[in-house]
Amino acid sequence: MLAYTLKRLLAGIITVWFIATATFMAMHMVPGDPLMNDKAVSAEIRKNLEVKYGLDKPVVEQYFIFMGNMLQGDFGISFTQQNRRVNDIIRDHFPVSATLGLLAIFFAATGGVIWGALTAIYRNRLPDIIIMFLVILGISVPSFVFAALGQLMLVNINSLLGFSLIPVAGWGTFSHMLMPSMVLGLGTMALLTRLMRSSMLEIVNEDYIKTAKAKGLSPMRIFFKHQLRNAILPVITILGPSIAAITTGGFVVELVFAIPGLGRYFVQAVQQLDYTVIMGTTVFFGAFLVLMVILVDIIYGFVDPRVRLQ
Amino acid sequence: MSDSIAPSFTPDYTPASHGHSVEQLSRPSLSYWQDAWIRLKQNTRAIISLYIVVSLALFTLAGPLLWQVDPALQDLNQISQAPSFPKRALLADPYERWQPIILDDFPREPETYVDVDLMPAPTGVQPLGEPTTQQIRLRWEPVVGAGGYSIYRNQHAPEGINDLGLPLATTLGGNEISYEDRLNLEQRDYYYSIVPTDGFDEANIYTTIKVLPTIAITRDEATQRGLIDADTEIQIGDPLSLRFHPFGTDYLGRDMLARLMQGARVSLFIGICAPFLFVMFGILYGGFAGYFGGQLDALLMRFADFVVALPFLLFMILFKIAFGIGPGESGVLPMLIALVLLGWPGTARLVRGQVLQIRNNGYIDAARLLGAKDSYLIIRHILPNTMGVILVTLTFAVPGAIFTEAFLSFIGMGVAPPTPSWGSMCNEGVKTMLSHPHELIFPATFISITVLAFNLLGDGLTEALDSRMRSR
């Protein structure tokens, strides 16, 4: 297990290096540079600025300088935001995005398992039909529509109550996080529900369930101990890729709910070609995603002993 | 042997004679695709989805031919109109100054003081002339003792003295018994209430009249908005049909239906072309890796793993900017390239897995023994056997691409305005969601229906093409 973990971590580090290199290349493909935004800079001043920021050096040398700094955990200073180090931007805004995403994953996973199990129990009966209808809706409707509807719902609830029960937008307390993370997790929850349902239905026909029934185990014990535990496995495997998908939707939800996450800074940085911020946010985000996928795989090993044996 | 045993059988049956009906098939032979089509046709949901997909294609391709409205044409007189039936307008004279009615035989100031609470409600309130969206003129009978009248306008029937609506004006004499309203009139019911005053305070009584104006348009205005030509023979008072917007208009008065059609072109183009291209590339890449295997396979697949690990949306934005949008370009192509660059590894992995599996099958070895070349094996045996999986992947990739386009356009990193796409229309619509919900509802519904149709179709195809299901 330790060897496996180490191997995965090593592969992860190489992946992060690849992400950094790809970002660097894509970024330098964009015509212009971060200094283009400043108005009326004479050629001499521009030259001095380039020297100061190291932009006068060849791109390959810039790449090695950046990589060296990154290895020391320093992403540099933002080009467009005064006196703000990229590390500070990440420290201030990344936890917000990560909290939102992880809460959404939590909602999606618990919801998916519960609804999926319910649909399997009530197969082809009313609860199953209703939940599967909602699942299809959840898969087909883009998250920004859910976000807008969710916000509208909060506005109506608050105006009905006459006081602000759950804030409509912003960030800070847990009640702020509730609606955005649920909206963000909705699509993934729908996917996981479908997956859980089909995996539950597949397992019902397995021999070990028949054996358990034949042994005379109580239905509750069969359900929780044998059926549910085995049916969750495919759900866990898909959690890794889901985390990436959820960060995608996260940008949109952050926008609608005015959440100070990393997404807004990234979009802004790309528009202004803020090299250091682009590199910092992408590499950090990529590293986070890689780490989460590895984590999910390791957790999978604990849940499913068969994987550990291999 | 059989001759010696035969006599011991009881003659319950006769042995089948040779050369007759043994080799005959009981049912016609079906190819894989015929079989899949038959099973797809049994799946109602998949067939309905197929119809939806076909009608969406028709909507996109044939729609603009039937509905020839310029999606970029702005009509600032018809901003954010809700969906409606065709509207007609009357050609009206240009507005002329109007003299309010002031009675000579009625005192301007009341001669005898009447308590304001004892005043009767005005009678005989009626529109003067034809009420139009150009102007609504009202007149009423004077009230004895009144020193003026207050005029209110509401958009619903008032439910009491405190619900009269917008105070429009107060006339300053008991003999000023008319009022002209030109305040931003639309074609809808208006409730005008007249309240007498004693010159200072208003009475507690009012008379309400409901007025529904007709749409009036002057000749100049009609010419300006392109409804008639300058030399069209048309009389004052003639009806004139206004531009019809079955799906309403957006915040610049552009026709929603035409924009939805043009937006469909962008959204479906990206939604179908990008998956098609990256699935093609994935087939080549994965097929190559899977077929030749070994070190090359390991290397190629490691690279695919790297590409999968890239944060998708961040790189979509980065690539899109990197490829650049020139002035006047829509930005569809950069998005397409970015999607293809980031989308292929999934298909590549899948195809590689399939090829590895098929490569070890007995019939491949048999074909090779018979002297088949690599190219023959790939084209004749391996590709057709992976087609089912590929088709399903393609179908499921379409909703993903449509969503990606919508997400990017929604956060303002998608197609450049004025080119509409469903995503950018949602972005515009969400800002006025409360007051004009149709601007969000229509594009969002189109996205949802398209995604739904492709998802259900994908489900149906999976069931129809899955070889495990064939035996059931």
UniProtKB/TrEMBL annotation, chain A:
Report the InterPro entries cross-referenced here. BPD_transp_1_N (IPR045621), MetI-like (IPR000515), MetI-like_sf (IPR035906)
- Enumerate the UniProt keywords alphabetically: Cell membrane, Membrane, Transmembrane, Transmembrane helix, Transport
Which residues span the membrane?
9-30, 100-122, 129-154, 174-192, 231-257, 277-303
Tell me which Gene3D superfamilies the record gives. MetI-like (1.10.3720.10)
**So which domain of life are we looking at?**
Bacteria
| Membrane topology recorded in Swiss-Prot or TrEMBL | Multi-pass membrane protein
A GO cellular component annotation in the UniProt record: plasma membrane
Q: Where in the cell is it found?
A: Cell membrane
Q: Per its UniProt record, what Pfam families does this chain match?
A: BPD_transp_1, BPD_transp_1_N
Quick check: keyword Transmembrane in the entry? yes
Provide the ABC transmembrane type-1 domain boundaries: 94-300
GO process annotations (BP): transmembrane transport
Q: Which family does it belong to?
A: Belongs to the binding-protein-dependent transport system permease family. OppBC subfamily.
Query: What name has this protein been given in UniProt?
Result: ABC transporter permease
From TrEMBL, chain B:
Please give the GO cellular component terms listed in this UniProt entry: plasma membrane
Instruction: Give the main location.
Output: membrane
Q: Which CDD domains match?
A: TM_PBP2
How this chain sits in the membrane, per its record, is: Multi-pass membrane protein
Q: Where is the ABC transmembrane type-1 domain?
A: 264-458
Q: Where is the segment annotated Disordered?
A: 1-21
InterPro entries xref list: BP-dependent_transpt_permease, Ig-like_fold, MetI-like, MetI-like_sf, OppC_N
This chain's protein is named ABC transporter permease
- Alphabetically ordered keywords of this record: Cell membrane, Membrane, Peptide transport, Protein transport, Transmembrane, Transmembrane helix, Transport
Q: Which residues cross the membrane?
A: 48-67, 266-291, 303-325, 331-351, 389-415, 440-462
> GO biological process annotations for this chain's record?
peptide transport; protein transport; transmembrane transport
Concerning its family, UniProt says: Belongs to the binding-protein-dependent transport system permease family.
Subcellular locations according to the entry = Cell membrane
Is Transport a UniProt keyword of this protein? yes
